[in-house]
């Protein structure tokens, strides 16, 4: 059995996006890492509002802060998604157990992480002058590219 793909949300702000991403993780068998502080609490009410009935199907790992996550996984295969990168996400190679790292909806990843991991930063191409895709859409696009490269392990 192959190692799970890892989706990392650093300080997500919108529960509906996180719910959509949890659904994607459930459907593809990815582990979801949630990095505090989040813009909402993981209460049953917020989870219900997020519209995701798949929470029980998702392996969730919570982190107290971004520093804790990067300290634990800084030497692993990280792919930081940022509009500040030059390299397209399609040019990267995604191995088993890769970590796809996404920042908060309002301002993305902190510059200090982008600079510290500059060689691991990728972007999803889009038209000039537009800021970003919706976070849940970006996670879906990136997840399926990583899984495509791996031959869609465990998916039918």
Give an account of the 3D structure:
By secondary structure, the protein is α/β, with parallel strands linked by helices. Helix content is 31%, strand content 15%. The protein has helices spanning 15-28, 44-49, 66-73, 111-116, 135-149; strands at 6-10, 31-35, 60-63, 78-81, 99-102, 121-122. The chain has a six-stranded parallel β-sheet. Helix 1 runs parallel beside helix 5. The longest helix has 15 residues, at 135-149. It is globular. The two termini are 15 Å apart. The mean pLDDT is 91.
Q: What Rg do the Cα atoms give?
A: 15 Å
- Please give the order of strands in the largest beta sheet: 3-2-1-5-4-6
Low-confidence runs: none
Can you tell me the overall shape? globular
Task: Report helical residue fraction.
Answer: 25-40%
> Beta fraction of the residues?
15-25%
Q: Structural class of the secondary structure composition? A: alpha/beta
Q: How many strands?
A: 6
Distance between the termini: 15 Å
Which characteristics define this entry?
alpha/beta; globular; 31% helix
Provide a short characterization of the protein structure.
The chain is α/β, with parallel strands linked by helices and about 160 residues long.
Could you give the topology of this structure?
Layout: E1 6-10, H1 15-28, E2 31-35, H2 44-49, E3 60-63, H3 66-73, E4 78-81, E5 99-102, H4 111-116, E6 121-122, H5 135-149
Parallel strand pairs: 1-2, 1-5, 2-3, 4-5, 4-6
Helix pairs in contact: 1-5
